[in-house]
Specification:
Largest sheet: 5 strands, mixed
Number of domains: 1
CATH topology: Glutaredoxin
Helix content: 40-55%
Order of helices and strands: HEEEHEHEHEEHH
CATH architecture: 3-Layer(aba) Sandwich
Distance between the termini: 38 Å
């Protein structure tokens, strides 16, 4: 019980810190996206281990969230809409930095139309495979069809972000942008 409470307090503090940094810092630092392939495995809602590479061949929007995180819950309908409208070219994947029982219960009411993977410390470690520090929730990674990190966004995803992402992915598909160009085109997404 104490361990669960400590993890919950740590996660809440990380989310609050990330939110504060995102919305109250005087200017957003420009963070270079490391040249790295994103690879991790976590259990899904049924407890089956799933590799991120299962979705190779499609660009992926990997969203790290928690049931107790208000900005995370606010962006779920938008992520469901993105999956419905762009699921042929883009796979949304939710990664819950939370307890299995809490996520399974929340998933029953949220009616996700995209896969949900679950972990606590393992989910934070998965986020850090990007080479960037995990400082709060939500965190969203845009991963190319080949598994390369295109961009990482800390904070809530909005409609304007998704429009920008879709445009960049379409330009990549046409061959108008390479990986470096896509990173540059997304700017401060």
């Amino acid at each position: 019980m104490i361990n669960r409470l400590l993890v919950a307090v740590f996660l809440a503090a990380a989310a609050a810190g990330g939110y504060w940094l995102k919305y109250h810092a005087s200017s957003e630092p420009t963070v270079a996206v490391p040249d790295t392939r994103i690879a991790f495995a976590l259990p899904d809602l049924e407890g089956n281990m799933r590799e991120l590479s299962e979705w190779n061949g499609k660009a992926r929007l990997v969203n790290f969230w928690a049931t107790w995180c208000a900005p995370c819950r606010r962006e779920i309908p938008l992520l469901k809409k993105a999956q419905s409208e762009h699921g042929g070219d883009l796979q949304v994947i939710g990664v819950a930095v939370d307890f299995q029982d809490d996520v399974v219960a929340y998933a029953q009411t949220a009616a996700f139309n995209y896969p949900i993977l679950i972990g606590q410390e393992d989910a934070m470690a998965a986020a850090e495979t990007s080479g960037m520090d995990f400082v709060g929730l939500p965190v969203t990674m845009l991963v190319s069809a080949e598994g390369d990190l295109i961009k990482m966004h800390m904070g809530e995803v909005h409609e304007s972000h998704l429009s920008q992402i879709i445009e960049v992915l379409e330009r990549m598909d046409r061959g108008d942008l390479d990986l470096a160009g896509a990173r540059n085109a997304l700017g401060k997404f």
